[in-house]
Amino acid sequence: MDTQGINFYDKELDIGRVVAEAQLEDCDEALNICDLSTVERKFELWQKQLPRITPFYAVKCNDDKRIVQTLADLGVGFDCASKNELKQVLDYGVSPDRIIFANPCRPISHLDYAKQQKVLKGTVDNEFEIYKLHKHYPNSNLIVRFKSEAKAAQCPLGDKFGCDADIDASALMLLAKSLDLTVTGTSFHVGSGCSDMEAYERAIRKAKNLFKFGQLLGYDLDLLDIGGGFPGSDDEHFIKLAGTVNSAVQKYFPDERIQIIAEPGRFFVAASYTLVCKIHAKREVRNSAGKLDTVMYYLNDGVYGSFNCILYDHQTVTVEHYLPADPLLPTFKSLIWGPSCDALDKISEDLRLPYLKRGDLLGFPNMGAYTVPIASAFNGFPLPKTLYFKAI
Ligand SMILES: Cc1ncc(COP(=O)(O)O)c(C=O)c1O
């Protein structure tokens, strides 16, 4: 197996076989298995379900260089939040018009860099940033980000970003107009991991009203940005959400001259990673009568490493073990800890697992979103290495 480059496979990636061939017996570090073809398949699914909408991948979700390169090669655009993210994407040869600087509050040096690199599109949601743009990047294209939250989302974002859609967004456009700045569109983010089927419809309707107001001011708005929020590991749910987006777009933005973009993050990458961890220690917890209550397992990755998604992204992880699938095998109440000395470092509890032993491996699918860029080597436990795979 190539540990530096990309490994190629025929038809389907057999994770069990990869794990067996990786010979992890003598290795104390966790391992990421990244299937780059999953990213390509997600792109095909996007094109099929949302043909009118150009995806601008949110780099923050997973900035792994092979993931970003794969998406750049597919022609996807990018949502960057900082100078470094802009630089990373530009270094892959992505042209500035395929980038949106989608952080409504940017340090001046980052804005200067965007200006120098001619990244024109940027979101804005408050008057201070408009004055900042007036001073530092007056010929940029302002995309007014308004708030329109899903009723249910894994990570709501509305407390931090997005102006009020009914009054403040119009006031910001008026201010921009009085400063001779150019507003070219509007954006919103319904919240990451959106499960509200009507969320995009509501937001797109509000965007339509703002387009009308912009026209009254003499602006020629031509960009609608519908943000992120699409699921990463549930394609059926994605297809349903895409259906509601398509009908709202058809209803409110039938004019094909208006470019519609989105900023999907987890949609592209969640399913592309499987994390393989090793049980390096275990304990049995017994009740006062000596009866086994819970088996506790300690893994070589935890919430300060890849499983930070449990804390920050409110994810519930799924565990797979690599024992023969025998339904007669008894299962026990189990709890899984990470490797650090902190009791917050808990991965999963109240699980039913077969009786596992030290050295056994556990697999966690769908670990590609909001894991890699945030993970730290707290307490001296190294981050997992990544093996890359791609279909021939
Ligand atoms: C501005 C912006 N765009 C896009 C995303 C990506 O969202 P998701 O991963 O839900 O698609 C985020 C996530 O926080 C974001 O803040």
Describe the structure in your own words.
The chain has two domains: 6-34 and 270-391, Lyase, Ornithine Decarboxylase, Chain A, domain 1 (Beta Barrel), CATH 2.40.37; 36-269, TIM Barrel (Alpha-Beta Barrel). The protein has helices spanning 15-21, 36-49, 65-74, 83-91, 108-116, 127-136, 168-178, 199-216, 235-252, 266-269, 308-312; strands at residues 6-9, 31-35, 53-58, 77-80, 99-101, 121-124, 141-145, 153-155, 182-187, 192-194, 223-225, 259-262, 273-286, 292-299, 320-321, 331-337, 346-354, 361-364, 385-391. With 392 residues, it is α/β, with parallel strands linked by helices. The chain is built from eleven helices and 19 strands. The structure holds pyridoxal-5'-phosphate. Pyridoxal-5'-phosphate binds next to strand 10 and helix 10.
Kindly report the CATH topology of the largest domain.
TIM Barrel
Number of strands: 19
CATH architectural label of the largest domain: Alpha-Beta Barrel
Bound ligands: pyridoxal-5'-phosphate
What is the global morphology? Answer: elongated
**Helix/strand-derived class?**
alpha/beta
**SSE order, one letter for each helix or strand:** EHEHEHEHEHEHEEHEEHEHEHEEHEEEEE
Looking at this structure, what is the CATH superfamily of the largest domain?
Alanine racemase
Residues in helix, %: 25-40%
| Name of the CATH first level of the largest domain | Alpha Beta
Average pLDDT figure: 96
Present the secondary structure layout.
Elements: E1 6-9, H1 15-21, E2 31-35, H2 36-49, E3 53-58, H3 65-74, E4 77-80, H4 83-91, E5 99-101, H5 108-116, E6 121-124, H6 127-136, E7 141-145, E8 153-155, H7 168-178, E9 182-187, E10 192-194, H8 199-216, E11 223-225, H9 235-252, E12 259-262, H10 266-269, E13 273-286, E14 292-299, H11 308-312, E15 320-321, E16 331-337, E17 346-354, E18 361-364, E19 385-391
Parallel strand pairs: 1-19, 2-19, 3-4, 3-12, 4-5, 6-7, 7-9, 9-11, 11-12, 14-16
Antiparallel strand pairs: 2-13, 8-10, 13-14, 13-18, 15-18, 16-17
